[in-house]
Design brief:
The complex is a heterodimer of chains A (about 500) and B (about 450). Chain A is an alpha/beta fold. In chain A, about 50% of the residues lie in helices and about 10% in strands. The chains are: A alpha/beta (about 500), B alpha/beta (about 450). At the A-B interface, helix 1, helix 2, helix 3, helix 4 and helix 16 of A face helix 1, helix 3, helix 9, helix 10 and helix 11 of B.
Chain lengths: ~500, ~450
């Protein structure tokens, strides 16, 4: 597009389009989220969704604004529906079915569980957020969230040097290192160099590649010996050979299907494709069939190579060998897709090794005595100051609210006397779930001290965290957390638990 | 969100003095007026702490961009009212996806001023004073005069960070070799890039400073010139060719320097880069990539800035109120895959060029050329200087060995680069004073001749 006609929207969102692309932005702009409770935490989350361009939002909040609300909340002039979530659950639970995702902020346990049940049945993702004193809490509830574009930070390259495909093999063969002039020799891509010396090694070692440290060192030495020497027998400065030596470990990585992808391929959803299956599963099934036929046990070739010292032509030619193979494999996968399903949108399988699925347990399962994740809780509580204690305290505080219709320590005079009451809640919680753990009195005191405060900086931290998780769910890019996140502003630490 | 700044949902309230309605600071007071088991050992609950925050505590915020906007809001809603904010930039359309104190009508106006206006209108009682300046515009009198209690940075420049770091170190006073604690101004520093961020607490003279951990900021990667000039492989190489080689040669807009914010300039670079790419069968040159390379754009979103600024503001609150032990001392955040945080104590470096007060060791043979010393100062990962100016004292007189930033002096001293240290009259143990944009004070080096 010409510079002058670059839309103001593209300019405005430029910095984020570089992260999730135009298609991610489109998903965001087509989404409609529901925020329950416009507290500081709620409005901060919403701000961080409005700024990147969320399509629409609806606020459900039955409270009236108090003086302390205005004290910690930057946005109290936006209009809210003014309804009460409990009333909606009573009279019109299907109200929530229209949303892409629901964010529940500062919800009492009973409302949270009721809402959780409605949204679980309707397969609407639910993000629970709570700021309690200096503690932040998030719980993601989504049955099955598929991620095609996880954008991993440190992905291994897909070079296939252990099992070069035909075109790569013949490309490698087209090189004769021994007969090359210095200029060409010094600008040969390291992938070719490693491939050539690997051939040599295999022929001398009964087709066994270097396996342990000793063998890899010997292999590196073999490569080093290939560096050209000048008339005085001194090795020339060949950076591409240095690169080859440095990248031996990467190059020798066996081509393997990642465990996460293996699990997905062997999953029930992949075996039983129906007309209702999401395109994610259709593609996965097509990839499975590819692996079993054209792929000869491997995923489709990714098609990218890292930059490396080489002259332009050698690099581009090598890059094209991988690219063309990737296109070939993608076409084969597409054929499988066509066979599986009549019409499906355009699919790129370059992300095949990075496919992820996130399945969070329902709130009902987390809260039920029969299915509570005792092991996770007790093992973390081996360290009594682990963030797990904060989760248990939040549960205890919810229990307090159920019993006393208020949170502990809200007023100064209540702090001392509520400590023993809260302790009773803690004990009954541990007993009900048969949790043989010890919670230090200090935490019970601290949670009374908090008095259900929602300090702005903690709300803001959670608002940023929550918004990004919502964006991940909407865009199906990057991987959401699974499923409980605790932030401790006292120690500036956090933890993620699967409960 | 409405376009105009809307009046608060609470009735009345004057802009100064008694504008605190009932319950306004309830959330904050619970941490100032109640004892607790995890508070800082020095903490004493009192009603005076809130008054200190509201009336006395003075905070300097550096940067009014992605982090700065969030910081101002966070501080204002935590009870801080005396805030100064410094930013040299004006508002650009691309800021609006995260810098929420700005609206499309504000494009072109100074960030510091618009941010201050917004906060002062929205948060009754808050008095943010803007400075449309580079932080380097202010010498130590600015800090002595204003007596900031805490400084919090939301910068996008490592050079500016190091400069600020150096400034606070220069303000430290020592009596008989003992650091006077009242001269320490705590520095909270936040940084973000895409989905990654970090927040750290620095007590100048006591804990690790920015330069102590310079290796955490790897030097910016510039492509080798020979790759750009004769062996391009990536679309980025083609863009740099266009920017670094074609633009100075063809001067498409006369003597005007390349302006990354000028769409016509970017379009020109883009088209030339496409031609270059076509020559070498390289794919992938786009307008967006071109702009990204020319302007060295770092992707940014609202959420990461919100998280990091929140963590920084929490630390400001802890230090100002002594409510809790502050972060000790470095937090790393990344939400690409789930949410990941890592907290550790960065260690002070014994021979840090900024905060250790010992002259830095320079080991070179007397036959080494000055050029080699210059390269060491810029390339060494612990120093990473940008354009060091080297002076020394010879025969009682101050002599400039090399200086880049003034054209006439650069020309005059350039021949020194090819001379050996011995030829320049330098001896073993000679002290060299080096000035650079990365520090407000000169750094002392001691020559240690090797054989």
């Amino acid at each position: 597009t010409m510079a002058a006609t670059k839309t103001s929207k593209e300019q405005r969102y430029d910095r984020q389009l570089r992260l999730w692309g135009d298609h991610g932005q489109e998903a965001l702009e087509n989404a409609h989220v529901c925020l329950i409770n416009a507290t500081a935490t709620g409005t901060e989350t919403l701000k961080n969704l409005v700024l990147p361009g969320i399509g629409a939002f609806t606020i459900v909040d039955g409270h009236t604004v108090s003086g302390e609300d205005v004290g910690n909340n930057f946005f109290l002039s936006s209009s809210s529906i003014g309804k009460n979530p409990d009333k909606l659950l009573d009279n019109d639970p299907e109200f929530f079915h229209r949303f892409t995702l629901v964010i529940g902020v500062q919800l009492p346990e009973s409302t949270c569980l009721r809402l959780g049940s409605v949204l679980w049945s309707a397969s609407v993702p639910f993000l629970v957020c709570k700021t309690y004193g200096l503690i932040g809490y998030m719980r993601l509830v989504v049955k099955e969230h598929t991620v095609i574009e996880s954008h991993p930070d440190n992905a291994l390259e897909d070079l296939r040097l252990d099992q070069p495909f035909a075109e790569l093999k013949s490309h490698i063969q087209s090189y004769d290192l021994e007969s090359m002039e210095k200029k060409d020799h010094s600008h040969t891509p390291w992938i070719i160099i490693v491939a050539k010396y690997l051939e040599k090694w295999l022929s001398e070692h009964n087709s066994q590649p270097p396996k342990n440290y000793k063998e890899k060192e010997a292999f590196r030495q073999l490569i080093r010996q290939g560096i050209l020497k000048n008339d005085n027998d001194v090795p020339e400065d060949e950076e591409n050979f240095e690169e080859a030596v440095k990248n031996v470990n990467t190059a020798l990585n066996p081509t393997k299907i990642p465990t996460a992808v293996e699990d997905l391929i062997n999953s029930e959803q992949c075996s039983n494709i129906t007309s209702q299956s999401a395109s994610f599963w259709v593609m996965l099934r097509a990839i499975k069939e590819f692996i079993q036929s054209e792929g000869n046990g491997s995923l489709p070739v990714r098609g990218t190579i890292p930059d490396m010292i080489a002259d332009s032509q050698k690099f581009i030619n090598l890059q094209n060998v991988y690219r063309e193979k990737a296109m070939q494999d993608a076409a084969a996968v597409s054929k499988h897709v066509e066979c599986i399903l009549q019409s499906v949108g355009k699919v790129s399988c370059k992300n095949a090794s990075f496919l992820r699925v996130v399945c969070c347990r329902s709130l009902a399962e987390e809260y039920s005595v029969d299915s509570v994740n005792k092991d996770e809780i007790t093992s973390y509580m081996d360290s009594p100051d682990s963030e797990m204690v904060l989760y248990l305290m939040l549960r205890a505080v919810d229990r307090f609210y159920q019993q006393h219709s208020r949170y502990p320590g809200v007023y100064n005079y209540q702090v001392e006397e509520d400590i023993s009451k809260l302790k009773l809640c803690v004990n009954s919680l541990l007993q009900e779930y048969s949790l043989n753990v010890n919670i230090k009195d200090d935490y019970i005191h601290e949670f009374c001290r908090y008095g259900a405060a929602e300090p702005h900086t903690v709300a803001a931290f959670l608002g940023g965290s929550a918004a990004q998780e919502v964006i991940k769910i909407i865009s199906h890019q990057f991987v959401p957390f699974n499923n409980t996140f605790i932030y401790n502003a006292m120690s500036q630490t956090s933890a993620t638990f699967q409960l | 969100m409405a376009d105009a700044v809307e009046p608060m949902a609470v009735d009345g309230g004057h802009r100064d003095g008694a504008c605190d309605w009932d319950g306004r600071w309830n959330h904050v007071k619970k941490f100032l007026e109640r004892p607790g088991p995890f508070t800082h050992p020095d903490f004493e609950p009192s009603t005076e702490s809130l008054q200190f925050l509201l009336e006395t505590c003075k905070i300097l915020v550096i940067g009014a961009g992605g982090l700065g906007c969030e910081l101002l809001k966070n501080l204002a809603l935590s009870g801080f009212r005396l805030i100064h904010v410094v930013d040299m930039d004006t508002i650009d359309l691309s800021n609006l996806n995260r810098q929420f104190l700005f609206r499309p009508k504000d494009v072109g106006r100074p960030k510091a001023e618009v941010a201050a206006d917004f906060i002062n209108s929205r948060i009754p009682g808050c008095k943010v004073v803007p400075h449309f300046n580079k932080i380097q515009d202010f010498d130590e009198s600015f800090y002595r005069h204003n007596k900031f209690h805490i400084i919090v940075c939301g910068l996008d420049s490592i050079i500016a960070r190091r400069w600020m770091n150096g400034m606070l170190i220069s303000l430290l006073s020592y009596e008989d070799g003992v650091l006077d604690p009242s001269s320490i101004i705590p520095l909270i520093d936040g940084g973000t890039e895409g989905f990654k961020g970090n927040a750290r607490v620095i007590l100048p003279g006591m804990t690790a400073c920015i330069d102590c951990t310079l290796e955490l900021y790897p030097p910016q990667i510039n492509f080798p010139m020979c790759t750009i000039a004769s062996m391009p492989r990536l679309p980025e190489h083609c863009i740099e060719y266009s920017r670094l080689l074609l633009w100075p040669k063809e001067k498409p807009f006369g003597e005007t320097a390349l302006d990354g914010d000028n769409p016509e300039h970017i379009q020109w670079v883009f088209e030339r880069a496409q031609e270059r790419a076509a020559e070498f069968n390289i794919t992938g040159v786009t307008y967006r990539l071109t702009q990204g390379v020319v302007k060295r754009i770092i992707p940014a979103v609202a959420s990461t800035n919100a998280v990091i600024a929140a963590a920084c503001a929490t630390e400001v609150f802890k230090i100002a109120s002594s409510a809790y032990i502050p972060l000790n001392n470095y937090l790393v955040f990344n939400d690409v895959d789930g949410l990941y945080t890592y907290t550790f104590e960065a260690e002070r470096k014994d021979n840090c060029s900024a905060c250790s007060q010992v002259p830095q060791d320079l080991q070179f043979p007397p036959s080494a050329k000055l050029q080699e010393v210059l390269e060491y100062l810029t390339e060494n990962s612990s120093l990473q200087m940008k354009s060091p100016a080297i002076t020394t004292t010879l025969e009682g007189k101050n002599k400039t060995l090399y200086l880049q930033s003034v054209k006439s002096i650069e020309e005059r001293t350039r021949p020194n680069l090819c001379k050996t240290l011995k030829e320049l009259g330098l001896s073993d143990g000679q002290e060299l004073a080096v000035a650079d944009v990365t520090t407000p004070q000169t750094v002392l080096f001691k020559l240690n001749f090797t054989t």
